[in-house]
Amino acid sequence: xxxxxxxxxxxxxxxxxxxxxxxxxxxxxxxxxxxxxxxxxxxxxxxxxxxxxxxxxxxxxxxxxxxxxxxxxxxxxxxxxxxxxxxxxxxxxxxxxxxxxxxxxxxxxxxxxxxxxxxxxxxxxxxxxxxxxxxxxxxxxxxxxxxxxxxxxxxxxxxxxxxxxxxxxxxxxxxxxxxxxxxxxxxxxxxxxxxxxxxxxxxxxxxxxxxxxxxxxxxxxxxxxxxxxxxxxxxxxxxxxxxxxxxxxxxxxxxxxxxxxxxxxxxxxxxxxxxxxxxxxxxxxxxxxxxxxxxxxxxxxxxxxxxxxxxxxxxxxxxxxxxxxxxxxxxxxxxxxxxxxxxxxxxxxxxxxxxxxxxxxxxxxxxxxxxxxxxxxxxxxxxxxxxxxxxxxxxxxxxxxxxxxxxxxxxxxxxxxxxxxxxxxxxxxxxxxxxxxxxxxxxxxxxxxxxxxxxxxxxxxxxxxxxxxxxxxxxxxxxxxxxxxxxxxxxxxxxxxxxxxxxxxxxxxxxxxxxxxxxxxxxxxxxxxxxxxxxxxxxxxxxxxxxxxxxxxxxxxxxxxxxxxxxxxxxxxxxxxxxxxxxxxxxxxxxxxxxxxxxxxxxxxxxxxxxxxxxxxxxxxxxxxxxxxxxxxxxxxxxxxxxxx
Length: 645
Ligand SMILES: Nc1ncnc2c1ncn2[C@@H]1O[C@H](COP(=O)(O)OP(=O)(O)OP(=O)(O)O)[C@@H](O)[C@H]1O
Description:
Bound molecules: adenosine-5'-triphosphate
Shape: elongated
Oligomer: single chain
Number of helices: 28
C-alpha cells in the first residue's frame, strides 16, 4: 500500500467515525474526529487525499446543516411556527439582506474555512443577525427563518451545547472552524495557530471574533460538561420547550384547522403537539415492547418439562382436589404440541406404567429384600416427617443378582404397594439419535416423576445406562450419565417441604453390578442381592405358577424342587409353562400334528387335562437353568464388597 493510499484509508476510517458520531448527535465528537482524520492523513500533502477530504467535508457539512434544518423546523412546528423552506432558499434571503448578506459573503469566502464551506452556516448567519441585532434592532426582523433560528439560540440548551452556540457565547470562531483551521495551522506547527485567514476575518468582525483564542484542544470547543447527553436531548425537539418566543418578531401562523370542524381558535395551539405525539409514540412503543416482551417471554417460558415446580396453580388446585391428573403432556402443552412434546409423549407411552399391579404376595421368597425395600422406599413416602436428618431417605436402591430372580417384580410391587406411579426405564427409553435429547429425556423423566408424584423410577439393566465412564466415550452418553447423577441427587434433596419430600424414589436393577459407574453406585445407597430362589422359594414358585392349573396327585413336588436347584424364578416359570403345554402337545401329536388343523379348536377343551409328573419331567428336559455357578460366585463377591443387607 502506497503512502497516499494509507493516508486515504486512515482518513476514510476517521470520516466514517465522524459520520457515526454525527448520526448519534455527537456533533462535537464528529467534528473533532474529522479534524483528527485530517491531521492523521496529513492533508494537503497528497493531492488525491486533499480532494477526497474536500468532497467528504462538503457532504458532511451539508448533511449536518440539513439535520439542523430538520431539527429547527420540528422545533418550529412544535411551537406553532410554520415550517420554513430549506436552508438554501433561506440563504438567498439572507444574501438579499444588506449588510448581513455582505458579511455572509465574506464568511463564505473567508479563506479561514478550508474548502470554503463550514457546517451550521445558518446558525452562523443567525449569530451575525443577533450581533447586528444588538446594534440595530430592526436589522433581521424581516427574516422569519433566521428569527426562528434566533429562537433556537435563545433556548438555553442549544446555547450551551451547539458548537456554533458555543462559538457565539465565546465569540470565538476558531473553536468552530477547528476542523480545517486546526489542520491548516498544524501544518505550520503550533506556533502558527490562528494565523491563517486571521487578518481577513478579523478585519470584518474585529469586535466579535478573536483568533488568538484558538484552542487546539478539541474538548474546549464545547463547554457543556455533559455535551453528549445534552445534544441527545436537543435532538429531541420535544425537549426544547420554547417559552421565550418573541411574538413581535416572528408571529406564529395560525394552526391549520380542518374545514369541516372549523372552530374559533383562541390559543396558539400547535398543529402537531410533538410532546403528545411523542408520548403516544412512546406509549405505542411501550405497548409494542410489552407485546414483544410477552411474545419473547412466551417463547422463553414455554412449559419446560424440566422446570422445577412447573405446576400451574390451576393444575395444582386440580391435584389438591383429588381430581384425576391430566397427562404430563397436556399439562405442559394444553394443545398437545410444543418443543418437547415428542419426547414427553414418548416417555409417557413407553415408560409410565400407571398401574404395575404386582403385589408382594405374588413374589416368592425374598422376604429380606421385600422388607428392605418397604423400609427404604415406602416408609419415606408414607411417613415423610420421620425421615429427617440422619434418617433422610435413601437416594436410591440397587437390586442386583442373576437374571430372572424377581427384581423387576419387586420394583413393581413397591410401586403398587406405595400407590406410586411406576416409571419403567430401560436404556432404549433414553436413547435418542438427536444430540442432547438423551440428557433432556433424563430431565423430563425426573420432572415427569415429580409431576406424577409419588413416583417410583425404576432403571432396569442400569448398567447399560450407567456403566463406568471411560476415556473416549461418546460425549452424549457422558452428559446423560452426568444428568442422571444430578437428577438422582436432586430427588433426595429437592424439597425442604416435608409434604413434597421423597415423593420420587429411584430403584435400579442390574445383572452386572461390577460395571456400574462409581458415582452412580454411591448414589444407589442400598445395594441388595436378589439371589436365586432357595428350596423354599422354588416350592413357592411352583405353587405360584401352578395356580389355576389342574395338576394330578402323582406329582412329586419335593422331587421337582430338588431337581430345579440353581434355577431362577424365571426358569421355574418357564418350566411350569412348558409343563402346562404338555397335554395339548400330546393330543396334537396324537391327532397328526398341524396337518389336521380343523380339529385344533376342539383341542383346547380336550387338553384341559391335569398335568402329570411325566409332563414336568418332560419339561425339565427342555428347560435348563440359565445362571452359571461362576456368575453366582461373582455376585457373592460383589455383594461382600459393596452390598448391603
Ligand atoms: N421371586 C419371584 N416370585 C415370583 N416370580 C418370579 C420370581 N422371580 C422371578 N419370577 C418370574 O420370573 C419372571 C421374570 O422376573 P423379573 O423380570 O422380575 O426378573 P428380573 O430379576 O428382573 O430379571 P432380569 O434381571 O433378567 O431383568 C417373572 O415374570 C416371574 O414370572
